[in-house]
Amino acid sequence: MAEPSRCSPITVSDVQQLVQRKEEIEAQIKACYELLEGQKGVGMHEPLVDAEGFPRADIDLYQVRTARHNIICLQNDHKALMKQVEEALHKLHAREKEKHAKDEAEALAEAMSQNQTLPQPFAKVNAVTPGSPASVSGLQVDDEIVEFGSVNANNFQNLQNIATVVQHSEGRPLSVTVVRGGRRVHVGLTPKRWAGKGLLGCNIIPLQR
C-alpha cells in the first residue's frame, strides 16, 4: 500500500488502510511462528545443529531459517507501521481539533455579524404580569426593546417617551420590535385598561449603554 503523501492531509481512510496493513503483517508473523512450531517447536533462538555440531536432520532448516528471517523483517515493518499509525492518528486528531476551532470561529463571526445588523436596543422588559395586555401581546421578560411605536434608540431620552406613546395609543395597536435570543421579534401591543395597574401590565427599564 502506498504511504499517504506528506503534502496531502491525512484522512480516516488513510488510517484505516494503515491499520489493515498492520493486521496483515501481524497475520504473517503469526503464520511464520506457526511454521516454526510445526518444526519440532523450534522458536527464534533454538540451535539448528545437533550435539555434535551437525545440521539437525529432524527439521527443515531452509524453512526454519526463512521463517526466522521473515519474522525479523516483519517485526521491523510492524514497528515502523505502528509509528505511522500513531503519527496519522495524531495528525487526524490535530486536524479535527483545528477544524472544530475554525467552525467555532466562523459561528462566532456569524453571530457577531448578526449582532451588528440588529438595531440598538434602548430599554428592556424586566417584568410581565400574566393576563395583562403586554402578556397577551407576547412580550417576555428580558426582551430588549429597539422600537416602541415611534420611539427608538435615536430619539429615546427617558421612560417618559414610552409613557407618552402609550397614553396616546390607548385602544390602538402599537408596533413594538424587540431583540429576543439574538433575533428580531415584532409584537403588536394594544395599551388598554385591564384588571391591573396601567395600560400595559409590564415593567420597562432603560438600558445603560
UniProtKB/TrEMBL annotation:
**Membership in a protein family:** Belongs to the proteasome subunit p27 family.
Q: Which Pfam families match?
A: Nas2_N, PDZ_6
Q: What name does the UniProt record give this protein?
A: 26S proteasome non-ATPase regulatory subunit 9
Looking at the record's lineage, which domain of life comes first? Eukaryota
Q: Which organism is it from?
A: Dasyornis broadbenti (rufous bristle-bird)
| Segments forming domain PDZ | 90-182
An example GO BP is: proteasome regulatory particle assembly
SUPFAM superfamilies (UniProt xref): PDZ domain-like (SSF50156)
Q: Name one GO cellular component term.
A: nucleus
Keywords of this entry: Chaperone
UniProt cross-references to PANTHER family, sorted A to Z: 26S PROTEASOME NON-ATPASE REGULATORY SUBUNIT 9
The entry describes its oligomerization and partners as: Interacts with PSMC3. Part of a transient complex (modulator) containing PSMD9, PSMC6 and PSMC3 formed during the assembly of the 26S proteasome.
* UniProt keyword annotation of Chaperone present: yes
Record function comment: Acts as a chaperone during the assembly of the 26S proteasome, specifically of the base subcomplex of the PA700/19S regulatory complex (RC). During the base subcomplex assembly is part of an intermediate PSMD9:PSMC6:PSMC3 module, also known as modulator trimer complex; PSMD9 is released during the further base assembly process.
